Amino acid sequence: MPLCWLISEEGNHKPIQLPHLQTVVLGRGPETTIKDKKCSRQQVELKSECNKGYVKVKQLGLNPTSVDSVVIGKGNQVKIKPGQQLCIVNELYPYTVQFRENLTGSHGGAKKPREPPSEDRESQGEVQSLKAARQAEGIPVSPGHEQTTKITESGGHWSQGLKTSMQDPDMQVYKDDKVVVIKDKYPKARHHWLVLPWQSIPSLKALCEEHCDLVKHMQKVADQMVQQCPDSATLHFRTGYHAVPSMSHVHLHVISQDFDSPCLKNKKHWNSFTTEYFIESRDVIHMLETDGKVTVKEGTGELLKLPLRCHVCRKELPTIPALKEHLKSHFPR
Predict the structure, then answer these.
(1) Residue 307 DSSP class
(2) Which of 47, 68, 145, 229 falls between 20 and 30 A from 191, CA-CA?
């Protein structure tokens, strides 16, 4: 029977084994290294069914635990499989589950797996891929057990959604044999596109030296998008990647810096584009050229909780509406 492991996508600690049919309760504490007081010490209850290839997850804490950005709800339980993402609280501290054959023939003594290699993540299917596009686009999802169950148990409709977005002529802005550019469904600025490779690359951590030419091509296409934009003379653009959450299908953001959009609704949206959580495309290229891999700093997810601060003058604002009103002074229509 395979062994089940809970893997921190941020690499904050070693994998945690989830023994077959044994209840494991996790939350704030040394085992997860989570120090966030919004996370209960008993936030989630996990029970793996190794013979069936899934883990039952029950939210115990008051603040939301989510699977693929859908809130479970206190007291509710869902099933997760490899390829889906569990965020312990408030869409932070992302984890995946992994099943490995127990070559020892026993329930103990097996070596703990390292961070899942890219080929394993690619084989997890297109459920992962659409999840990334969904989170990058900020698609709103209402919390609820029934909806969570539907999404986590019906990978097909997630998969079809991504294919539809990439193939839909109304969404496409540009395509060639290597990449496609689509309009972000929920843009966080006046101009916001995603550059996606046709090749299946699940995450920034899966990028290696052999992808360097592809990533450079993605940047070249992003530059072309900016050049052809009628507002390029008056608006500044940035191109980059979100560091941590669900980078299950690598996609490059091309976004104008006015952030004038009704879809920008909360602190997480803002900080994901205006802090080091947003990794510049050229920095990714440099890391691949010099190190052959992309390194994400430990604790990057904490940046999403920073105070709201104007990215132009660094003034701190108390709320998103106040911030948006302030931005009008920098980016008049």
Answers:
(1) P
(2) 68
% of the chain residues with pLDDT over 70: 80
Residue 82 near residue 96, CB atoms below 8 Å: yes
DSSP secondary structure letters along 84-140: --EEEETTEEEEEEEEEE-TTSSSS-PPPP-SPPHHHHHTT-HHHHHHHHHHHHT--
Ramachandran angles phi, psi of 174, nearest 5°: -160, 150
Structure tokens given for 184: 């972000």
The C-alpha atoms of residue 88 and residue 172 are separated, in whole angstroms, by: 34
pLDDT, tens only, 5-39: 999 988 888 999 999 999 999 999 999 999 999 99
Q: Edge-to-edge strands of the sheet including 54-59?
A: 23-26, 44-49, 54-59, 77-80
Could you list the beta-strand ranges (E) of 171-296.
172-175, 179-183, 192-197, 237-242, 252-256, 278-280
Note the pTM of the prediction, 2 decimals: 0.58
Q: Whats the size of the chain, residue-wise?
A: 333
pLDDT of residue 5: 94
DSSP string, 16-66: EE--BT-EEEE-SBTTTTB--TTS-TT-EEEEEETTTTEEEEEE-SSSPPE
Largest CA distance in the chain: 67
**Active site amino acids:** 251
102 with 96: CB under 8 angstroms? no
Residues 300, 243: contact at Cβ < 8 Å? yes
| DSSP label at residue 316 | B
Count Cβ atoms below 10 Å from residue 259 Cβ, excluding itself: 24
Residue 45: Cβ-neighbour burial (10 angstroms; 0-12, 13-18, 19+): middle
